[in-house]
């Protein structure tokens, strides 16, 4: 894999003034290759009211999920929208959108 990103765990917590906050904690480094977005994926993401801006391919990892993980690339944080897996090649593709 060519580039380096940071895999983060996303969870809710309460700050010192009892307000809910979203915490993003580093889990590990993630090596990836940029694959680009297809027109079909862009169309499907707009129908689902999400805006996929990046798609990356990385090694297969069962612990990564859409709800509990996020990715940081070059200081920009992304949410994982979809995960496509290819178990035979031990790869998975992550569709990413900006954090709201």
Low-confidence stretches: none
Helix residue percentage: under 10%
Strand order of the largest sheet: 1-2-3-6-5-4
What's the gyration radius in Å? 14 Å
Q: What is the structural class?
A: mainly beta
Reported CATH architecture: Beta Barrel
Count every helix, treating DSSP H or I runs of 4 or more residues as helices.
Answer: 1
Q: Can you walk me through this structure?
A:
With 100 residues, the protein is mostly beta strands. It has a single domain, classed as Bacteriophage SPP1 head-tail adaptor protein (Thrombin, subunit H), CATH 2.40.10. It has one helix at 39-47, and strands at 3-14, 20-34, 54-59, 69-73, 76-86, 91-98. Strands 1-2-3-6-5-4 form a 6-stranded antiparallel barrel. A hairpin with a 5-residue loop joins strand 1 (3-14) and strand 2 (20-34). The longest helix has 9 residues, at 39-47. The chain is globular. The mean pLDDT is 91.
Nutshell version of this structure?
With 100 residues, the chain is mainly β. The chain has a single domain (3-98), classed as Bacteriophage SPP1 head-tail adaptor protein (Thrombin, subunit H).
């Amino acid at each position: 894999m060519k580039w380096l990103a940071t895999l983060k765990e996303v969870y809710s917590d309460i700050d010192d003034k009892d307000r809910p906050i979203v915490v993003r904690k580093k889990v590990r480094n993630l090596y990836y290759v940029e694959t680009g977005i297809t027109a079909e994926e862009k169309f499907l993401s707009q129908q689902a009211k999400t805006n996929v801006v990046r798609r990356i391919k990385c090694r297969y990892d069962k612990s990564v999920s859409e709800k509990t993980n996020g990715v940081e690339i070059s200081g920009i944080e992304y949410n994982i929208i979809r995960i496509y897996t290819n178990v035979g090649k031990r790869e998975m593709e992550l569709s990413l959108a900006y954090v709201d």
